[in-house]
Write a structure and sequence with these properties.
Elements: H1 3-22, E1 44-56, E2 60-65, E3 77-78, E4 89-104, E5 107-127, E6 131-132, E7 135-138, E8 144-166, E9 169-189, E10 200-218, E11 223-245, E12 248-270
Antiparallel strand pairs: 1-4, 1-12, 2-12, 3-6, 4-5, 5-8, 6-7, 8-9, 9-10, 10-11, 11-12
């Protein structure tokens, strides 16, 4: 009699297994689609800060115009051989820049402007006695020549063209315009005399050209650092000093050549991207 319940149990279990086999198989949900990081691009506007140092070439000439209007006339005093009267000018500066880049494959083209302020200056004093252009002998009492040049504010507007050696590292050349506020002063004097010598002092806003090279690297999609070296040429500035001696006017003057180099480092923040 026990065989009947056992057979029923076997029959029920078999039916359950068959029913389960007919049920649809549920699979795990597919993973969410992969979202890749956006590709890096140099294109876009940027702003930044920079700081560096500048050097001006010791170039120029000290010259005299005698009462007859003759340049370096025979009675004009001259500086020692090899001395041009120009001071050594150097110093530090800092400022801001604003620019825009457009990327075309591995090529990046752009434009950048900057404004700088700092302390770039130099002075020089040359003690006599000095000789004459017209022959032997020296002027007594001994004269003194002093000169000064400063370029404490300037700015540039430049094009940039570079090649991306890696996706976020750019080697570039740059060139364009530079403008600066130039202050010059020259004075020729003879101490312990009754002669009055007027200092030649002048402030000029000079414009010229600049060109150089640099390297820039983006640490993130927005923040980059750069190192840049530029050569600049702002032409010449002449400081005129009038010296009335014994009722006659000698003009002792200094021509400064305002050209040199600057090196700076900077940080940029790029918008968008």
């Amino acid at each position: 009699m026990k065989t009947i319940p056992l057979a029923a149990a076997v029959l029920v279990a078999s039916a359950g297994i068959a029913f389960a086999a007919d049920l649809p198989i549920r699979s795990a949900p597919p993973p969410a689609p992969y979202s890749a990081a956006p590709a890096f691009t140099w294109s876009g506007f940027y702003v930044g800060l920079n700081a560096g140092g500048a050097w001006n070439a010791r170039a120029g000439r000290n010259f005299c115009v005698d009462p007859a209007g003759v340049l370096d006339g025979p009675n004009c005093q001259k500086l020692p051989a090899g001395e041009n009267g120009s001071p050594r000018v150097d110093g530090v500066f800092g400022g801001v820049q604003l620019g825009y880049n457009a990327q075309f494959g591995r090529i990046v083209a752009g434009i950048e402007g900057d404004l700088q302020i700092g302390s770039i200056k130099g002075s020089k004093t040359i003690n006599g006695p000095f000789g004459f252009y017209g022959g032997p002998g020296v002027a007594v009492p001994a004269g003194v020549v002093s000169t000064h040049l400063s370029m404490n504010t300037f700015g540039t507007l430049r094009a940039r063209l570079g090649y991306t050696v890696t996706d976020n590292t750019l080697l570039y050349a740059t060139g364009g315009l530079i403008a600066a506020n130039i202050k010059t002063r020259s004075l020729f004097s003879t101490p312990n005399t009754s002669a009055v010598y007027e200092s030649g002092s002048k402030t000029n806003t000079k414009a010229g050209w600049t060109a150089g090279v640099g390297i820039e690297h983006y640490f993130t999609h927005h923040l980059s650092g750069k190192v840049e070296a530029l050569y600049y040429d702002l032409g010449s500035v002449v400081s005129y000093g009038y010296a009335p001696v014994n009722g006659q006017g000698y003009s002792h003057n200094q021509r400064f050549e305002t050209r040199g180099a600057l090196v700076r480092v900077g940080l940029n923040y790029k918008f968008g991207g």
